[in-house]
């Protein structure tokens, strides 16, 4: 049942599905984090439920995600321990591909967000993060409890993780990427190739 | 006993035997295919290997590929057809019914975990939903303040301190682990259907309930599974990660919900 809640919630919150990760910087006060998530969520809902075309929505969502998600920190977290193995050139290429992949994944999931609404419930400090609890609803689906981990990155609050039923999306992403590297003898180049292939595959659909 | 009765008894016995033996046979099969660990000198890769705790990865991936094919050509099309002919309300009622039929199992597991309040919640939920909730298709217990609480034998073992152990991906059943695989036979015997006397009607009900549970559950996952398969670099690893985190979270929830055995109304007197 909790898995069911998780997966339903994961779709509902999928605008930031892949973007959820990040490096610790500074704590955001709970009330400020709540306000930030409320504003960000409203912007997201407005874009998704607008009458614009899917491509226009995708562009708007990409811009929004760049503003509210710490994408570079997310990328570094996802790369995990391999950040010490990657050359500077590979690291730069990885972050560029990560941004691109995130954009394509958002485009892929746009239809799934249609009609999404959300309510901000509360917020609490958890380690370096401030986690804002929300209830995300989509038509025809039971409501899902989604937590948004917020950190102060470069002086402004940014989303660094999405937690659904105790399941962290940044950890999921890191495990996904680490598996590609370990399956290929620890080669970062294999991960970069897999990311490029994925981008080609999604963009070709 | 009549010949017909003996045939039914043998059929029931075979079904039970299969459920009990299946995890053991699967474990034996898994031992046939083990992953090769990277050398400890390759620090990052070795740490990642240890963290994955998936020494039977080649076999697990084989079963994942088999399940994926079965799903693509059987379960998913059936689930899509099921979605076409049912409404969200019907699917929710089916979900309620499936949840309710597993409440006695939760009651027993919560008792073994030493969580009498949670066991009481499972008992109240089963009693209320089976009667007022018309056999469990409605969930009035939640409205009365008895929220659904989940557990199984794998989580009971976790409460007893048994570690999760290596990851296992089982044919048909999907993600599991060395500890959690024991849930399959235990959950099978902890349903009200198994406690009832053997009969043809009960067998038909049992098979129908299993089929409905599989289809209804697959229908609920249809969007998320499609999404993971489309966006993950390695869907196998993503499902593995989600499974592990979800199980750890369930253990944490049971511990966090560790209610005192004395109800509030009693202690406030």
Describe this structure in words.
The complex is a heterodimer of chains A (205) and B (269). Chain A has seven helices and five strands; from the N terminus they run αααααβββββαα. Chain A has 205 residues and is an alpha+beta fold. Chain A has one domain (2-203): Tgt2/MlaC (Nuclear Transport Factor 2, Chain: A). A five-stranded antiparallel β-sheet of chain A has the order 1-2-3-4-5. In chain A, α3 crosses α5 (88-113) and α4 packs across α5 (88-113). The model of chain A is unreliable at 1-24 (pLDDT under 50). Chain B contains 13 helices and two strands. A two-stranded antiparallel sheet of chain B has the order 1-2. The N and C termini of chain B lie far apart (58 Å). The interface between A and B is large, with 46 and 41 residues.
Give a nutshell description of this structure.
The complex is a heterodimer of chains A (205) and B (269). Chain A is α+β, with helices and mostly antiparallel strands and 205 residues long. Helix content of chain A is 54%, strand content 20%.
Task: Please describe the topology of this protein.
The complex is a heterodimer of chains A (205) and B (269).
Chain A: H1 2-12, H2 30-48, H3 54-68, H4 71-79, H5 88-113, E1 117-126, E2 129-137, E3 144-153, E4 156-164, E5 167-168, H6 169-183, H7 188-203
Helix pairs in contact in A: 2-3, 3-5, 4-5, 4-6, 5-7, 6-7
Chain B: H1 3-30, H2 43-52, H3 57-85, H4 88-101, H5 103-112, H6 116-131, H7 140-143, H8 153-159, E1 167-170, E2 174-177, H9 183-189, H10 192-195, H11 200-231, H12 235-256, H13 264-267
Antiparallel strand pairs in B: 1-2
Helix pairs in contact in B: 1-9, 3-11, 4-11, 5-6
Name the features.
heterodimer, A: 205 residues, alpha+beta, Nuclear Transport Factor 2, Chain: A, 7 helices, 5 strands, 20% strand, globular, disordered N terminus, B: 269 residues, mainly alpha, 3% strand
The greatest interface here is: A-B, 46 and 41 residues
Note the overall shape of chain B. globular
Strand arrangement within the widest β-sheet of chain B reads: 1-2
Order of helices and strands of chain A: HHHHHEEEEEHH
Helix content of chain B: 55-70%
* Overall structural domain count of chain A: 1
Low-confidence parts of chain B:
1-14
How much of the sequence lies in strands of chain A comes to 15-25%
Q: Largest sheet of chain B, if any?
A: 2 strands, antiparallel
* Number of separate helices of chain A: 7
How is the main sheet of chain A built? 5 strands, antiparallel
Strand order of the largest sheet of chain A: 1-2-3-4-5
The CATH architecture name of chain A reads: Roll
Q: What would you report as the Rg of chain B, rounded to the nearest angstrom?
A: 21 Å
Distance between the termini of chain B: 58 Å
Low-confidence stretches of chain A: 1-24
Strand tally of chain B is 2
Strand content of chain B: under 5%
Q: Compute the average pLDDT of chain B.
A: 84
- Counting helices, strands and paired strands, the structural category of chain A is alpha+beta
- The radius of gyration computed from the alpha-carbon positions of chain A, rounded to a whole number of angstroms, is 17 Å
């Amino acid at each position: 049942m909790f898995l069911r809640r998780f997966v339903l919630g994961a779709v509902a919150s999928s605008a930031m599905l892949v973007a959820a990760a990040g490096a610790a910087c500074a704590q955001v006060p709970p009330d400020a984090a709540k306000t930030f998530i409320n504003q960000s969520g409203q912007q997201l809902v407005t874009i998704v439920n607008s009458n614009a075309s899917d491509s226009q929505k995708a562009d708007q969502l990409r811009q929004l995600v760049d503003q509210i998600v710490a994408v570079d920190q997310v990328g570094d977290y996802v790369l995990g321990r391999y950040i010490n193995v990657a050359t500077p050139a590979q690291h730069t290429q990885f972050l560029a591909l990560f941004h691109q992949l995130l954009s394509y994944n958002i485009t892929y999931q746009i239809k799934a967000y249609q009609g999404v609404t959300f309510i901000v419930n509360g917020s609490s400090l958890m380690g370096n993060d401030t986690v804002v609890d929300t209830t995300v609803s989509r038509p025809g689906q039971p409501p899902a409890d989604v937590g948004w981990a917020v950190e102060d990155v470069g002086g402004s609050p940014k989303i660094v993780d999405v937690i659904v039923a105790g399941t962290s999306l940044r950890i999921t992403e890191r495990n996904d990427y680490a598996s590609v590297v370990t399956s290929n003898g620890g080669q970062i180049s294999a991960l970069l190739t897999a990311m490029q292939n994925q981008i080609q595959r999604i963009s070709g659909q | 006993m009549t010949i017909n009765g003996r045939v039914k008894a043998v059929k029931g016995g075979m079904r039970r035997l299969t459920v009990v033996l299946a995890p053991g046979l699967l474990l034996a099969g898994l031992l046939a295919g083990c992953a090769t660990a990277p050398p400890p000198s390759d620090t990052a890769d070795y740490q990642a290997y240890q963290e994955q705790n998936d020494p039977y990865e080649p076999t697990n991936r084989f079963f994942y590929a088999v399940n994926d094919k079965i799903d693509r050509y059987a379960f998913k099309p059936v689930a899509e057809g099921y979605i076409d002919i049912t409404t969200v309300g019907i699917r929710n009622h089916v979900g309620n019914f499936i949840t309710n039929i597993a409440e006695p199992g939760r009651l027993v597991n919560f008792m073994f975990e030493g969580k009498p309040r949670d066991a009481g919640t499972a008992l109240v939920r089963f009693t209320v939903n089976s009667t007022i909730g018309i056999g469990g298709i409605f969930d009035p217990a939640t409205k009365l303040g008895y929220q659904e609480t989940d557990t199984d034998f794998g989580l009971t073992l976790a409460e007893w301190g048994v570690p999760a152990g290596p990851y296992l991906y089982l044919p048909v059943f999907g993600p599991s682990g060395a500890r959690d695989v024991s849930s399959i036979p235990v959950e099978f015997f902890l349903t009200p259907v198994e406690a009832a006397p053997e009969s043809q009607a009960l067998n038909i009900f049992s098979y129908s309930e299993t089929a409905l549970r599989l289809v209804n559950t697959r229908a609920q996952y249809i969007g998320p599974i499609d999404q993971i398969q489309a966006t993950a670099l390695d869907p196998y690893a993503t499902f593995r990660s989600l499974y592990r985190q979800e199980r750890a979270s369930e253990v944490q929830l049971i511990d966090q919900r560790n209610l005192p055995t004395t109800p509030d109304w009693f202690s406030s007197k």
